[in-house]
Structure formats: structure tokens, C-alpha cells
Write a structure and sequence with these properties.
Layout (H helix, E strand, L loop, with lengths): L2 H11 L10 H17 L4 H16 L9 H17 L14 E6 L6 H14 L4 E6 L6 H12 L3 E2 L6 H14 L4 E6 L7 H14 L3 E7 L5 H13 L3 E5 L8 H5 L1
Parallel strand pairs: 1-4, 1-5, 2-3, 2-4, 5-6
Helix pairs in contact: 1-2, 2-3, 3-4, 5-6, 7-8
Length: about 260
């Protein structure tokens, strides 16, 4: 996913080999290349500015190690800051000790929520959980049928309701999950082509009535720095517990992963 960014950063790091020391001049010259590399990777502008500023401050205050080349020192600083930018995070799903664990997936239309619900259910089933998929996307044509097909392929129950509303579907799924002996519910909520008030109001109502234990934003890696705007909007409304990036194999830049 980060192939393009790796090549650009490698070019930037060569700037530091022209001198035997890290100086203000060669630090700034090299960081211009780092900034360009991140921007071309479609990383959010504000994220890039803050990142470069932190690297610059650390590099300027770096003690010179004579046995290490300047480019090696700056690589270490940039590496440490990239690691800090991406974490630390706990990527595990937390389960309730008793009763149902309710997971809610949200995101824009086309981000891959329904497919991700199936992948998550398969992962949890492999860990010994008994998940149920809930078709709460009543906006997109064939969304319910898509989830049914996925559930059938995985031998995982799917809860649906005809002529209902998303909030009631999610509420009633709790009763059905208990009846079938399931211990984990995965809510597949509706998305839109863009963030709007109707979408957020629906999701907020589901959260209030069902009280999911964890809320995950499903985000298309190809959206790049635009992922920041949607992530901020969803987090403001729902207080996200995590982000699931989809379509990573189609993006060599990594802008969304670094930005979101």
C-alpha cells in the first residue's frame, strides 16, 4: 500500500547524504521532499504540516552520532514519527463478558460496509464466536439480499425485516440473536454518497436505542485525504472506536491510512 510513498521518501533521504552533519539547511531541504512525498501520497495537508514540523523539531535537536550518517539519523526520526502517527492502537475486538456484544459498522455508500460485515463475521466465527449479521441498510437497493447471500455462504444467520425502519430492525435483532444463541451482533447500517443530516440522524438514533459496544467506520482507502472529512463527521456524531480500511490492494499511496 505504501509503495509510492516509500520510493518518494527514499529519494528525499538522499538529500541528507551530501553533508557529514545534520544542519538546518540540509534538514529543511530534505523535509521539502518529505512534505512533497506525503502530499503526493494524498495525505491530508494539515496532517502533513504537523508531521513535518515534528520531524523538523526532533531533527534540529538531534545529537550528532559520528558513527551514523545524517540520512540514517533522519530516516530513524521519520520512521519513529510515522509509527507514532499510526498508533499505538489495539486492533482487537473487545467482547462483553456476559450477554451480547453489539458491533456497529458505518460509512459512506460504496466503502465496502456490507462486504466488511461478512469478513468480520467470518473472522469472529473462526475465533469461536457465534455472530449474527443484521441488515439495517434499507436505503441501498439489494443491500439486504447481498447480506443474505454473504450470510448463506458463511453459514452465519442474517436478521432482516420487510417494510420496517433501521432502528426497529436493530432493536428487534437483539431478541432474535438471543433466541438463536448468538453472542455477537454486527449491524450493517446504511451509507450515503456523502455525509448528510439524514444519515447522521439515523445512525445516532440506532446508537441511542441499541447502544452498540463498539462503532467502526468503514473507509475506502482510495478516498485519500477526503477520508479525514468523513471520519471527523462520523466521529463527531458517534464517537468511533476504530476504522476499518478497505480496498488496500488498490492503493499504492496510503494517504487515507496516514490521514484518518
Amino acid at each position: 500500500m505504501f509503495d509510492d510513498l516509500q520510493k518518494r521518501l527514499s529519494t528525499a533521504f538522499r538529500r541528507f547524504r551530501v553533508s557529514g552533519l545534520l544542519t538546518e539547511a540540509n534538514i529543511q531541504e530534505g523535509l521539502k521532499e518529505v512534505r512533497s512525498a506525503l502530499l503526493e501520497a494524498d495525505v491530508n495537508f494539515n496532517v502533513v504540516q504537523e508531521f513535518v514540523e515534528r520531524v523538523s523539531q526532533k531533527a534540529a535537536g538531534q545529537q550528532i552520532i559520528k558513527a551514523v550518517r545524517p540520512d540514517q539519523q533522519i530516516v530513524k526520526i521519520v520512521h519513529d514519527e510515522l509509527v507514532a502517527l499510526m498508533g499505538p492502537v489495539d486492533s482487537s475486538v473487545r467482547f462483553e463478558k456476559t450477554g451480547l456484544t453489539i458491533l456497529m459498522l458505518c460509512g459512506l455508500q460504496g466503502s465496502g460496509k456490507t462486504t466488511t460485515c461478512g469478513k468480520l463475521a467470518r473472522l469472529l466465527a473462526g475465533q469461536g464466536r457465534r455472530p449474527m449479521l443484521v441488515a439495517a441498510d434499507l436505503q441501498r437497493p439489494a443491500a439486504i439480499e447481498q447480506l443474505r447471500v454473504i450470510g448463506s455462504q458463511l453459514s452465519i444467520p442474517v436478521y432482516t425485516q420487510a417494510d420496517s425502519n433501521p432502528v426497529k430492525v436493530c432493536q428487534d435483532s437483539l431478541v432474535e440473536a438471543n433466541r438463536q444463541g448468538c453472542d455477537t451482533i454486527i449491524l450493517d447500517t446504511a451509507g450515503r454518497l456523502h455525509v448528510d443530516d439524514d444519515l447522521m440522524a439515523e445512525l445516532v438514533q440506532i446508537e441511542k436505542k441499541v447502544k452498540p459496544h463498539q462503532v467502526f467506520l468503514v473507509c475506502d482507502a482510495l478516498t485519500g485525504q477526503d477520508a479525514v472529512a468523513s471520519a471527523s463527521a462520523f466521529n463527531k456524531a458517534l464517537e468511533l472506536d476504530g476504522v476499518i480500511l478497505t480496498k488496500l490492494d488498490g492503493d499504492a499511496r496510503g494517504g487515507a491510512a496516514l490521514s484518518v
